[in-house]
Structures are given as structure tokens and as C-alpha cells.
Amino acid sequence: MLDHAPFADGLPHPSPDEIHKHAAQIVNWLLADFTALPQRPVGTMASPAQMQAWLGQPLPEEGQGLDAVLKTFGELVAPFAFRPNHPRFIAFIPSAPSYYSILGDWLCAGINLFAGVWLEAAGATQVELVVLDWFKELLGYPPGASGILTGGGSEANLTALLVARESLSFADRGRAILYVNQHRHWSVDRAARTIGLHPDQVRPIPAGTDFRVHGSALAEASTRDTDAGKLPWAMVATAGATSTGIVDDLASIADVCRQHGLWFHVDAAYGWSASLVPAGKALLHGLERADSITLDPHKWFAQTFEAGCVLVRDGQRLRDTFAHSPEYMQDVRPADDEVNFADLGLALSRRFRALKIWFSIKVLGIGWFRALIQHTCALAEHGERLLQQAECFERLSPRALSMVCFRYRPKGSRGDTTEEELDRLNLALCAAVRDSGKAFLSSTRLNEHVALRFCFVNWRTTPRDVEEIVELLVSLKEKL
Ligand SMILES: Cc1ncc(COP(=O)(O)O)c(C=O)c1O
Questions:
Q1: Which ligand 1 atom lies nearest to the CA of residue 155?
Q2: Per-residue pLDDT averaged across 398-421, rounded?
Q3: What is the position in ligand 1's atom list of the atom closest to the CA of 305?
Q4: Predicted pLDDT of residue 7
Q5: HSE on the CB side for 432, CA within 13 Å?
Q6: Which of the four, 5, 69, 408, 473, has the lowest number of CB atoms within 10 Å?
Q7: Closest ligand 1 atom, CA of 242?
Q8: 478 pLDDT tier (thresholds 50, 70, 90)
Q9: pLDDT of res. 1
Q10: How far, in Å, CA of 480 to CA of 478, rounded?
Q11: Which residue ranges make up each domain of the chain?
């Protein structure tokens, strides 16, 4: 008989008491970090050689224990980062989770449910359905639509294009044309390449002088392509462009998509949250007519990375695109009224992604999130006003949602500073802000000019932070 004594108790692992002590150490570390963060530098850089010298170690055969590893983490890992949740990190589109998203994420990791099939996680699946229902309600999307939480907006855009492509025959896939906003996020191009489109099949639609894409420009392009024997297929509009926050003219695009038989996808990864407030809802008018929508709760909805979502108007299409029923899954095939999220997207094994979103909305109430949108839009307005008052910055695109795009132009320099010189000065200013450690903002290009941007999504950012950032810009530009 097999002697089972050597493995009778499973593997040695810390007892619940020890885990409790270690968990408390981590909570204490996190809360100390959270409390001190606004007074700390926004970030610190390190070279790859330096990081390799500190962290590139041989695979350890023996464990070192939590104290030593937490010390290494606290001294050599965590400090060498720019912190997207810092109140003065206003670069790119940051993520600044509420603490209830963080705690919900911890619950998710702790319970480690398999949120792929109903039979293994009816509660988790139902919570995801509830969260999707809430998003549909906020966006005015039909209750019969379907959706799935993804790792982020890139995965959501890819998922949407895969669903849209299902309507094309194999023969048509080589001549189908995908229209995209000239100012789209690059994840759209990556998704197009991933689904096998040739670069010639991706047609950028120029934005108007208001930086928005309008239906008329799409109609012109689609008509031209039809006349040339191509197959106009789908349009990806943007609600909240990454550089400017600008929302396309969704209603007119929806009209053209209907007239020309195009699939209408809206990348609302950042802008969707505006639907929480009446002015934002008006801006997003037409979004509710999309065939599919990308939304990213880890952007302007106070969630930890990774929280993305795709909604599809005709819910059956998600299932038609992704469902499979291999023999080793026969025990978990869903009944007609059950949902297996593994059948609706790219992942089979998936964490309980909905928990942190559901948890934070339930604990704080949707009113808190509405206040977040109002607060961050007010910060953008405040920032724009301060830039105007400083008299050495010019706006490069209309303020949109919680973003402002501008550039430094030396006072009285109109005419005698070249565009190249302005580009150089603005890139230098952006780097100087970052190097100061006091704030972090990023640059982009608009109409060929280097632009600086503010993007406010953080519930902890105050008007005083915005004033400090503008004061910093003014003082640093004098040293350029
Ligand atoms: C408009 C837009 N779409 C998609 C994405 C990609 O989202 P993610 O980073 O969550 O993959 C971004 C990211 O900034 C974005 O701004």
C-alpha cells in the first residue's frame, strides 16, 4: 500500500494566524502609501541597468519569508514608478481607483472564483450581468443587449471587431473597408491587424475643424469606396479621443451607418462616464444607437486596472462569435437561461472582474461617481482658466470632458518663434515637469503641433493641485 504519510497534510503553508499577520502588514503598507502619496513625488525613474542590478536575481529555491520580500518590494520595486493614482498625475488617461474598488479587487483575488461558467460561479456571473445592466441603463442602451467585462479597452475594441467581422463572408473579408476616426486610439489599428485586415482596408476619416468626425465625411468616403468596387463594412467612432477628449458627432455617424449598412462601433473607453451627468449625456447623443460600444471603467470610473467592457446591441452575436462546446466542457454547458461568460469573449479562465465594480458602486452609490465626473470636469475648467490667466499658453483644441490641450507660447512671440522652436520648447517643458517629480503630464500632437495635455480623472485631485501644476509650468518655462 502507498505510504501517504509524507503528503498527508498537503504542503506546508503559513497558518491562518500567520496569514492574518502578513495580510495586516500588507494593509498597513498600502494605507501608509495611500496616505502619504499626495505629498510624495509623482514618480521616480530608474535605468534598466539599475533595475536589473537590484532585482535580477537567480530563481530562489528556498523562500525568504514575507518580511524580506515586502522590504524589497517597498524599497526597490514600488518607488520606481510614476503613480497613476497620484493627484498630480494628469498624463495619458490615468487610473485612480476608489478604495472600494481596491478592496473589491482584493476580495476577488482572495476568493479566486472562476467566472467563466454559470455552474461554477452563479453568483459571480449574476453580479457581472447586473453590472452590465447598470452600464446599459446609464448609456441608454437596450436592455436586450449583451456584453462582457474585459481586461481593458484594447481587448474590448478587438472583441467588438471580431463580432462585427462575423457578419462578413470569408470571400468579402479581403475587400471590406473599416472606417476609423483620424484621431482614434492605436488599439483600433492593432485590432484591425489582428483580425487580418490589410492596412489599405483601414480608412481614416478626417475630423472637422472642431476635431470631431461627422457623418458627412464618412458618407463621402463610403460612397467613394462603393464606386470603386470596395465593400464599406464598419465604422469606429470615438467618444472621448485619447489626445483631446473630443466626442465625435455620433448621431450623424449613426445615421450614415444605417444608410450605408455599416457596423457602428464606438470606442467610448474614456468618454462613456460622461453619461452620468446631463451635459455629458447630451454630448454622447447617438451612442445608444451603436452596434457595439467599448467602455473602460479603469479610466474615468475609479476602478483598478484591469476593468474594461464591451457591449453589443444584438447579444446573440457575441455568443455566435465566441461560443464553443468541446467535450471536456460538457458538464458545464449552460441551460437556456444561464450565461457562460467564457462563451462571450476571448478568455476561458477569467477572474471575477465584476466584483470590484459592483462592490464600489454598491458601497459608495452611483451618486459618488456622478460627483467624480462633475468634480474632474470642474478641475479641467479651472485648469483652462488658470492657463488663460497666465497669458503665455494657448489652447490647441476645445476643452472636452475632463481634458485640456494647450501649448506654451512665449508672451509677445507671435510670428518670431518658429513652429519647430515651439515644439522643442513644449517637449522640454513637459520633460521638465516630469523631472521635477511634482506633477506628470504628457504631450501629444495636434494639427502637427506639439500639445501638452491635462487629463483629470482622480477623485483626490484638488483645485489647489491644479494651481500648483500651472504655477510649476510658469516657473519652469522661465528656465527653458
Ligand atoms: C479611446 C481609447 N480607446 C482604447 C484605449 C485602450 O484601452 P486600454 O488601455 O484599457 O487597453 C484607450 C487607452 O487610453 C483609449 O484612450
A1: 11
A2: 90
A3: 10
A4: 76
A5: 16
A6: 5
A7: 16
A8: confident
A9: 66
A10: 6
A11: 103-364, 368-479
Residue in 187, 213, 243, 250 to alter for ligand 1 test, most ligand atoms within 8 A of Cβ: 187
Which of 155, 185, 243, 301 for mutating ligand 1's site (highest number of atoms within 8 Å of CB)? Answer: 185
pTM greater than 0.90 (yes/no): yes
The candidate with the shortest Cα–Cα distance to 379, out of 18, 13, 100, 96, is 96
> Residue holding cell 536575481?
57
Confidence (pLDDT) at 412: 75
For residue 3, the model assigns a pLDDT of 79
* d(C-alpha 31, C-alpha 340), whole Å: 37
Looking from the CA of residue 157, the nearest atom of ligand 1 is 4
* pLDDT tens sequence across 122-159: 999 999 999 999 999 999 999 999 999 999 999 999 99
Q: Quick: pLDDT tens for 59-107.
A: 999 999 999 999 999 999 999 999 999 999 999 999 999 999 999 999 9
DSSP characters for 203-240?
A: EEEPP-TTS---HHHHHHHHHHHHHTT-EEEEEEEEBS
> Residues 180, 205: contact at Cβ < 8 Å?
yes
Q: Kindly state the cell numbers that stand for 221.
A: 468616403
CATH class, 368-479 region: alpha beta
Distance 154 CA to ligand 1 centre (A): 6
Q: Is the pLDDT of residue 12 over 90?
A: no
- Fold for domain 103-364? Aspartate Aminotransferase; domain 2 (3.40.640)
Dist. CA 421 → ligand 1 center (Å): 31
Q: Does the C-beta of 296 come closer than 6 Å to ligand 1?
A: yes
270 CB within 6 A, ligand 1: yes
**Cα–Cα dist 405/447, whole Å:** 12
pLDDT for 54 equals: 97
Q: Do 306 and 297 touch, CB atoms closer than 8 A?
A: no
| pLDDT tens-digit map of 435-466 | 999 999 999 999 999 999 999 999 999 999 99
Q: 153 CA distance to ligand 1 centroid (A)?
A: 5
C-alpha 185 to ligand 1 mean position (Å):
6
